[in-house]
Amino acid sequence: MALTQDARRSPAERPSTAMRSLSGGSVAGRYVMAGLRIVVGWVFLWAFLDKLFGLGYATPEARAWLNGGSPTKGFLSSATGPFAGFYHDLAGTGVANWLFMLGLAGIGTAFLLGIGTRIAAVSGAVMYLMMWTVVLPPVNNPVVDDHIIGAFVVAALAMFAAGDTLGLGRWWKRQPVVQHNRWLI
């Protein structure tokens, strides 16, 4: 039955082969990946909102970006390991602040909506890996920490077309600009 239904759908509407393989073709597997995509999107978007407005979680109101605070200064100033000098030089610069905040907002929005998940995954993985290099060596494990896990998670979200379920991924893939620029998927 599922095969017949998939045959009637356009290629953009069918779950990806990778997603069918991951979930054994199950609807439950697609929903688990969609849930993971939404949660990851919220993590990125929340970090953006908290740093922008200083909502009092990781960023107090007095250090909000809108109040003149720097979203990168604290974390990058505490860099350790072989890249410490590089990150100390970047800490608090306008370019670093803007790129970081645009990255958080873009990655979070893309994953929440289920569009542009490939570029969001690449950007998210780069951001996670750069954050991992800020804290080398990791505190709780000599190699792996939550940043490495996050990089693999965002890669899986794109590979398994997680934006197609509970997201706008299928619609997005049918848009002419995306049809001509497949990297926007």
What does this protein structure show overall?
This protein is an all-alpha fold. Helix content is 62%, strand content 0%. The protein has helices at residues 2-8, 17-23, 27-53, 73-77, 84-90, 94-113, 117-134, 146-159, 169-173, 176-180. The two termini are 28 Å apart.
How much helix is in the residues? 55-70%
The main pleated sheet reads as: none
Overall pLDDT score:
90
Coarse structural class: mainly alpha
Total of helices:
10
Task: Based on Cα principal axes, name the global outline.
Answer: globular
How far is the N terminus from the C terminus?
28 Å
**H/E element order:** HHHHHHHHHH
Summed up, what is this model?
This protein has helices at residues 2-8, 17-23, 27-53, 73-77, 84-90, 94-113, 117-134, 146-159, 169-173, 176-180.
What brief labels describe this structure?
185 residues, mainly alpha
Architecture blueprint of SSEs:
Elements: H1 2-8, H2 17-23, H3 27-53, H4 73-77, H5 84-90, H6 94-113, H7 117-134, H8 146-159, H9 169-173, H10 176-180
Helix pairs in contact: 2-3, 3-6, 6-7, 7-8
